[in-house]
Write a structure and sequence with these properties.
Elements (H helix, E strand, L loop, with lengths): L1 H8 L2 H17 L11 H22 L18 H6 L5 H9 L2 H11 L5 H8 L3 H19 L1
Length: about 150
Amino acid sequence: MIGVAQRLLKRRALAEEAVQDAFVLIWRHAARFDPQRGAGLTWIYAILRNRALSILRDEKRTETSEAPLGEEMASEEDDPETVMSKLSDAKALHACLETLPAQRRGLVLLAFVQGLTHGEIAGKLGLPIGSVKSWIRRSLIALKECLG
């Protein structure tokens, strides 16, 4: 399944994320499977393909311009705190980021400044992908409330 996802997504981390999400969807919707409509393997791969295509659409939706956020561009070697200090033009965002716990602030910065996927962040930090996804989502909600 990873091979199929990787052919569609071109990146191993995204493929792993798609397979993980597909297995969760398969588990949640197992009761919907109808053997009269097709083979189980076909159903499973259809779910994987749909999840991979959704990830591709989401990636395109989040593409931004190449212009730097601040005076300096963040490099992949920078830790999240260094990246946050480079966001000089975004004082309100900087203040709101300061309100987040350090670990969650780091996750948000890895995702949105360095452009890492949830799967890449989970692998880099050795955290479960589900935790990474939920912490980033909750942090974004807190940032939205703070900035709003």
